[in-house]
Structure formats: C-alpha cells, structure tokens
Design brief:
heterodimer, A: alpha/beta, Methyltransferase, Methionine Synthase (B12-binding Domains), Chain A, domain 1, Rossmann fold, 10 helices, 9% strand, B: alpha/beta, five-stranded mixed sheet, three-stranded parallel sheet, 11 helices
Chain lengths: 244, 265
C-alpha cells in the first residue's frame, strides 16, 4: 500500500519570506508550514515573528493553531493519516516551544491547573497530547495522568493538585462511558462545585457530553484552550489575566 | 398487535419498532431450528435479506450464505473516516429502496459513530448492538469486555485484517515508503507504544497456521506478547440467519441510528 499522505514538501525560503509581506501573509505561511509538517519553517517563521515583535497570541491563535486545525480536519476527512497528524503536532509543538518562554515572561502565573488523561481501558493519546501542547502553550499548568486512567485516580489527582479543570479523552465508543463514571465520582466527592469537567475525543458528541453532565465539550483539540478559558471565565484574548 | 406479544427488548426497541411492518414480528420471534447453515424463520423460510458488511468480515459472513441473502461488502478503509462510512452506507441503503427486502442487516457495529444517522425510508434495519468488529469476531460483547479488561493494550488481528495489510509491520513499511525510516519508527512508536500483545483471532474460516507466522512476526517486531484467541461464528451466524433477539437493534423505517442506542448509560 502506498501511503497516500505523501512526503513533506518544505517551502522554499523565497516562497516563505518575500519582501513586503503583511502580517496576515506571514501568519498564513506559518499556518501552512504546520499543515505541511515543515518543522524547520515553523521554527524559522515563529522566531522571526517573535523577533519582529508580533503579538505572541496572534502568532499562536492565528498562525500555529489554524494550521493544526486544518491538519486535524484533513485527518477527519481521510486526506491525512496518523503520520501526517503526528508530524503536524510535532511542528506545532516546536512553534509553541519557541513562544512559551516569552509568554511566561509576560504571564508570571498560570491560567489554571488542568488534570488530564485518557479514560480507563483506552490507550489512545495522540489527541490528548495535542490538547496538552495547546493548553500549556496558552499558559495552563498540566498534570498529565497518561492513558488507561481509572476514575479514582482522576479524582485523587484533582484533589491533590487543587486543579480547576478535569479533562478527559477517549477514542473508543466502548470506553466513553468511563467519562460518565469519573464525573459521577467527582460529584460524589463534592468537588464538582469548584472543578469543571471537559471531554473530547473522536467519538464524543455534544449530546453525549451533555448527557453525562460534563461542563464542556471539545469537538477538536484545537478548541481546548478557548473552551478551558471559557470554563474559568477568562477572557478569550486576555493575555494578562491571571487566576490564583 | 399488542406489545405484549413482543419479546422484551427494552423500552428503546419498542419505540423504534415500526409495528405496522408486520413481517418484523415474524423476524423477531423466529429461532434457529438447528445448527446447520439453513436459516429457518417462523412463518417464513429464508426471508429475503440484504446484508451490508465491511470487507474484513466477508469470508466469515459468506459461510452462512443460504442462496436467498444478498451480500454487499464495502471498503474496509471506511472505518478510519466515520463520516465517510455513514455516507457510503446511506447511499447503499437508499439504492435498496427500489427493491423489496424483508429487512436490511448491517454487519457493522457502532464503528466510531460510522453508522450514526443512517436510516432506511423503506426497510427495517437490523443492527448488532456492538461497538466494532472485534466483538463480531469474538462472538459476544461479554467476550470482548473480558479481553479488554484483561489486556486493554491488545492489537487484534484476524486473517481478514491481515489480508488488507493492516498489521503493524505493514503500517511501518507504508510509513517508511512515504517518509524516512526514522520518521516511520517514531510514528509507529507513537501509535503503538502502549500495546502489550498481538492477539490473532481464529475465526474458523481461514487456515490459521498461514497467519500464525505473521502474527508472531508482528509481535516480535514490536517486542510484545503474542496470543491466539478462539473466535466464534455465533454473531456472524445470527447476522445472516437471525433470530436477532438479544443484542440486536431492530430499527423501524425512517428512524435514524443514534449513538445512545449502543451505550449503557
């Protein structure tokens, strides 16, 4: 079987940085470099834009994240396969890695603590790891519990870390119900008053999320930062809003 | 017809049943009279059925062909894109509107929501209430749950899946053709890092010894365990021959399949 994803096609430098390009053009090029899994170009463009003093969240939310969203959509449609998705995630991680120290400089405190994991009996973590990259990039502190996480462990870690958000992922319809069991345990613990829950993963639907009592649903990993901010009532673009 | 005549399928099925389609009562109350490949239905011998199935279960279903049943097998790759699976199946079901069947059977599970929204304007749909084909191969949700609880990190192989090139080694080779070896190794590691065993399911319709080597080579390639599991023809038989009682959804015409029908919440 010939893998239909095709090879990485790096953009030529003169295609990337023509003279007189606008900020929008540069962001679009950054976005496409994420789609094309071109780590070098992502790295060079991100550094260039930071150096030129562009708003960090502009680079993140209008350059890197739209690229990842497009890659995810193309995966959903069957145009991209797992290698392409993983390689785009890697390119995104490189871009966010460049932005992070600068974001931390202006944002001394974290936006909130998120305990995250893939639910019991489920070992899929590509989407969850992407959510982690994106939440960290936006200034959240992440406690990653990995995969096959039983409800008791989720609840214990939420309590231990004083997390504000409990995020769960599942790729299988056969394991989705563990999200419900975990939320029920959170409710039984009484912590649901101060801890918000968000759920996602390919088979998870808004109806399912509502039925199990989740506070929020993420259709795709790239929406996780805005959903998390909304849950904690942080203004979407408030780069300097802190939660103690 | 009063509901008291019906077997206890739970509230949801009562809602779904289109009781005006009288033939369905016959379908529901029929039984397998013997263990041969002949299908007997109360009041109707060998009903005319149209069965859709994924190409990976073709041999397992075809063994119960009784001459009256029409089979149509769809591309195995649809499982990767649930939205495309639903579109493809809906198109096939719509095309069947021009013919008369006693029912349409879907040889699919919920398949990551790949059958959600599907409906037939003309025929009753009969669907196994399972998550995916691994339950079909193992014969019951109980068998699947037992395996999933004992070994959540299982990569299941069946001869049908092997024939479609869906082994870890085949995936690696495909990745390496598109990218370099280092990238292929990294992608496969990311994809497979939590798997602890390969389980080859013997479904009884292929010579399993021809696939044993492939299963073992893949386990060795990944450095994980290898086991063989006995499959069961039970669900395949029931898909073709009925009686579609416990563990099947009978969906009346016009009613779309929904995810909730498959979940125990």
């Amino acid at each position: 079987m010939i893998h239909p994803g095709g090879k990485t096609i790096p953009l030529k430098p003169d295609q990337l940085e023509p003279r007189g390009q606008t900020v929008e053009m540069m962001l679009e090029r950054l976005s496409q470099a994420v789609v094309l899994r071109d780590c070098k170009t992502v790295s060079r463009l991100t550094e260039k834009m930071v150096k030129e003093g562009l708003d960090l969240f502009e680079i993140l939310n209008h350059g890197l994240i739209p690229g990842m969203l497009e890659a995810s959509e193309r995966f959903r449609k069957g145009e991209f396969f797992i290698p392409e998705l993983l390689m785009s995630s890697r390119a995104l991680k490189i871009g966010i890695g460049i932005l992070r120290p600068f974001i931390q400089e202006i944002r001394k405190d974290v936006l909130g603590k998120v305990v995250i994991g893939t639910v019991k009996f489920d070992l899929h973590d590509i989407g969850k790891n992407l959510v982690i990259i994106l939440l960290e990039g936006n200034g959240f502190e992440i406690i990653d519990l990995g995969v096959d996480v039983p409800p008791e462990k989720f609840i214990k870690e939420v309590e231990k870390n004083g997390a504000q958000i409990l995020a769960m992922s599942s790729l299988l319809t056969s394991t989705m119900s563990w999200m419900k069991f975990t939320i029920e345990l959170l409710q039984a613990s009484g912590m649901h008053q101060r801890v918000k829950t968000m759920v996602g993963g390919a088979p998870v639907t808004p109806i399912f999320a509502k039925n199990i009592g989740a506070d929020a649903y993420c259709r795709e990993a790239t929406s996780a930062p805005s959903v998390a901010k909304k849950l904690l009532e942080i203004e979407a673009n408030a780069a300097r809003t802190f939660v103690k | 017809m009063s509901c008291s005549f019906l077997p206890s399928f739970g509230k949801i099925l009562l809602i779904l049943l289109d009781l005006s389609s009288f033939f369905i009562y016959d379908l529901l109350t029929m039984g397998i009279r013997n263990s041969t490949k002949e299908c007997l239905i109360k009041g109707k011998k060998n009903p005319k059925l149209l069965i859709f199935g994924c190409a990976v279960i073709e041999q397992e279903l075809q063994q119960f062909q009784n001459g009256q049943t029409e089979f149509k097998f769809l591309d195995y790759g649809l499982h990767r894109t649930p939205e495309n699976m639903a579109k493809a199946l809906q198109m096939e079901i719509d095309q069947a509107n021009g013919k008369d069947y006693d029912g349409i059977v879907l040889g699919y599970g919920l398949c990551s929501n790949g059958i959600v929204g599907i409906h037939s304007e003309k025929h009753t749909l009969i669907v196994p209430r399972i998550h995916d084909c691994i339950t079909l191969f193992l014969g019951s949700p109980e068998s699947y749950n037992e395996q999933a609880a004992k070994h959540p990190g299982t990569y299941y192989l069946t001869p049908g899946w092997v024939e479609k090139g869906q082994t870890p080694i085949s995936k690696y080779e495909s990745y390496a053709r598109s990218y370099d070896e280092e990238t292929a190794r990294w992608v496969l590691h990311e994809e497979m890092k939590y798997y602890t065993r390969i389980a080859l399911i013997d479904t009884g319709v292929y010579p399993i010894e021809s696939y044993r080597n492939i299963g073992q080579q893949n386990a060795e390639f990944l450095g994980i365990g290898y086991e063989e599991l006995h499959g069961s023809p039970q669900l395949f038989h029931e898909l073709v021959c009925g009686p579609w009682e416990k563990g099947f959804l009978i969906i009346g015409k016009g009613t779309p399949i929904q995810q909730e029908m498959f979940l125990d919440l």
